[in-house]
Design goal:
By secondary structure, the protein is mostly helical. The protein is built from nine helices and no strands. It is globular, with a radius of gyration of 19 Å.
Amino acid sequence: MKTQWIKQITLAAAAATALMGTALYADNNTSPKSSTVKETTTQTHDVLQLIDIAGRQRMLSQRIAKDYLYAGEKVAVSKAQKQLAASLKSMVATHKTLVNSINDPEIKNLLAFVELSMEDFKSTANEPFNLDNAQLIIDLSESMLEGSQYVVNSLKKKANLKESALVGKAGRQRMLAQRIAKYYIAYQAGIRDKNTVDQMKEAVKEFSDAHKALMNNPSNTPEINRKLNKINRLWKIVYKFYLNIEKGGLPLIVFNTTDDITNKMNQITELYVALSK
């Protein structure tokens, strides 16, 4: 059943490959035995790419809300607005890729729900900034995150791939960096309830724990370790800024450093996907 399910999504996953800017490797001049091994490897790689793509939706859910709040608070306005527009476009394109790449009825049903939430998300993100809309877009970003995480978990469970744990963990780090910035600026914007502080600090803790686990992973390549060490040097300094959410005063530093971490973790996630080749 596992092999049959993987084969169902293999061809559609090739379209996902193009979206991510990577190429699948094929060689027609092999013996039947090596072709079978290569086919299995390629199928595994395709599933991991889908997990990576679904994982990006988690990050986008947090980035869109963050950008809306930053633009509304008149901090890094130009960058936030451009990033918001690009993230909305990317979320729609990525969702279409997932819908076209996954045949499992349970996951497709969840994707249909995500699409409904996405319409509300897009609409609110284009509304004028006020505290009511700010709270609404935070709530919608949580629904989008929950749905996207469910898709990731379902792909990992159904594929039952050992490698997917690393891809999922590294991919989640991208989301956590954006989540930290989202709750940091939400507090500065006036959403100062206990949940805002708790969620931001929990995201910092989860990122720290996952980063340690990734750094201790014995299968890391030298390139992965170099990139993780770069994040580690930055993280040791900036995480203290994030924890001072109630003090505030550093929204631009938070914006830039969390984006930097997200970009670096995106590269690392792609490297973990590549390990499946």
